[in-house]
Amino acid sequence: MSGLNVSLGFMLAVVVLGAAGRLLSRQLILQSFSAEFLASFMLVACWMEVQTLMEVGQWAGGFGPDVAFTILFLTLVVHGMVSQGATGNPTVTAMNFFTCDSVVSSTLFGIAGQFLGALLARLLTSYYWSLELTDMHMIRNLMSQECSPALRSSVMQGVFTEGVCALTFHLLYINLQHHTALLRVPLVAAALTFLNFAANGYTSGFLNPSLAYTLTFNCPGFTMVEYMTVYWLGPLVGMVLAVFLCLGHIPRLFARNLLYSKKARVRVPKGKGIQDQAEAKKGQGEKKGD
Question: What global pTM score does this model have?
Answer without folding.
Answer: 0.85
